[in-house]
Design brief:
Length: 268
């Protein structure tokens, strides 16, 4: 390949990466239109960008997303370590859903809320509300948010409680929040509060339990399992599936710690 051809390929790759970054998540067809290149060229460039870990194809919706922060970053951007967490979590979440049939979501904390960054809902044989990546929920609502609040460090927890009381003073008083945290720690998992509708405006008809993913001495994420509300209560579902969910959380944590250890040793 000549220098001119190499430079043209590099320019096209950068243009494609910027288009992915600007859209926040795009299909192959959307990217073809955005960069005005042949589909075969865009597909080839995407394969290279994915291989180089600059782009990832999300398990939840099949959209391509940038894994790097570009100069003109947008609201949906997450730190690179979060995308590495997603890369580690995806195969674990897929196996979890294959084993129990019910899907799982992966959440990380962003500011004073929790954001869903990956989901195996598309892999489940059971038709559920598909959800949407990058949706953010408060620290008082989702099962994952409650699990995070219960297991994060005390100083972080106190700051999040104070922020929740300031932003949503009518949702739950301080006594109610602390009672919820104590119950979550007693059970070992977070649950949705009564009346929580999930990500949809209409009631999604689901229940959830969630556990923390802990490594590096702190909660880095939370993972849940979702099921149809009429199937089982939280207690009955946890009795059947909690240990499997906890095993998945530990596997994600162990794999992330192994990657951190490799990086700290200076290996590629």
């Amino acid at each position: 390949m000549s220098d001119a051809e190499t430079n043209r390929s590099l320019e096209r790759g950068i243009r494609l990466l910027k288009a992915i970054d600007q859209q926040g998540g795009a299909t192959l067809s959307q990217l073809v239109r955005a960069v005005d290149l042949p589909k075969t060229t865009v597909r080839r460039l995407l394969i290279t960008l994915v291989e180089q870990r600059l782009v990832r194809k999300s398990l939840a919706d099949g959209l391509y997303r940038a894994t790097v922060l570009l100069p003109l970053e947008t609201d949906y951007e997450l730190p690179p370590h979060t995308w590495r967490l997603c890369d580690v979590a995806v195969p674990v979440m897929r196996r979890l859903t294959e084993r129990v049939r019910w899907p799982s979501d992966l959440f990380v904390r962003v500011g004073a809320g929790m954001r869903i960054v990956e989901s195996s809902r598309s892999c489940s044989p059971i038709a559920l509300y598909r959800g949407k990546l990058s949706t953010q929920v408060s620290m008082l609502l989702s099962a994952a948010a409650r699990a995070y609040l219960a297991y994060c460090p005390e100083d972080e927890r106190e700051a999040l409680i104070a922020e929740a009381l300031k932003q949503q003073p009518t949702m739950m008083d301080e006594h109610g929040i602390r009672r919820m945290i104590a119950e979550t720690r007693r059970c070992g998992y977070g649950v949705r509060p009564p009346g929580y509708r999930g990500q949809s405006r209409a009631d999604d008809g689901l229940r959830a339990i969630a556990v923390p993913v802990i490594y590096g001495g702190r909660v880095q994420a939370c993972i849940n399992l979702l099921w149809v509300r009429d199937y089982l209560t939280e207690e009955a579902f946890a009795e059947r599936y909690l240990e499997t969910l906890q095993q998945a959380a530990r596997e994600i944590a162990d794999r992330c710690e192994a990657l951190q250890s490799i990086a700290s040793d200076g290996h590629p």
